[in-house]
Amino acid sequence: MEKVEYLVNKLDLKPHPEGGYFSEYYRSDEIIKCQPERFTGEHVYATSIYYLLQQDNVSMFHRLKQDELWHHYTGSSVTIHIFHPEGGYQQQTLGCSFEDELAEYQILVPQNVWFAAEVKDKTHFSLVGCTTAPGFDFSDWELADTEDLVRQHPEHLCLIKRIMGTY
After folding, report:
1. Distance separating alpha carbons of residues 46 and 13, to the nearest angstrom
2. One Pfam family of this protein, by short name (predicted)?
């Protein structure tokens, strides 16, 4: 796909461990001197990345120790699946198409929720941005264990296994 190759090269995107491609766009210079106890190591105030999903790429279920704000730039809308700690499930659509009335230009994914994302139009791609504060560090990122997630949310077995690539 020509547009995907162009974006991968222009934005220097690399494979992400949860799926898709990313590159860091911004990392603040200042370090938080007194950060919440849930974090280990030094953290900067904020970071932002470009994140690209194409056709059947998914962002597998994972969680972060900080809130993450997703912004849509171009391409297909993105479906974001969220499992809240108290047991609730939420599906949100990130996009900027006038044809997709459910789509929001930005979506906030709260800290400590299991969430995943996938391109809504499986024939297309999507370029989004993700911003975190405090800034992202891979020590804040946890990939879900499929069997644990199924035990917590058995009513969503098919979704979990499809997203995690085990179905």
Report:
1. 20
2. Cupin_5
- Find the CATH number of the domain harbouring 117: 2.60.120.10
The candidate with the shortest Cα–Cα distance to 116, out of 86, 131, 94, is 94
The angle subtended at Cα 119 by Cα 135 and Cα 4, nearest 5°, is: 80
Residue 10 covered by a domain: yes
pTM: 0.93
Can you give the pLDDT of all 167 residues of the chain as single tens digits? 699 999 999 999 999 999 999 999 999 999 998 888 888 888 999 999 999 999 888 999 999 999 999 999 999 999 999 999 888 999 999 998 777 788 999 999 999 999 999 999 999 999 999 999 999 999 999 999 999 999 999 999 999 999 998 65
How far apart, in whole angstroms, are the C-alpha atoms of residue 54 and residue 21?
9
Q: Which domain holds residue 121?
A: 2-31+41-164
* 114 falls within a domain: yes
Q: Is residue 36 part of a domain?
A: no
Cα distance between residue 52 and residue 56, in whole Å = 12
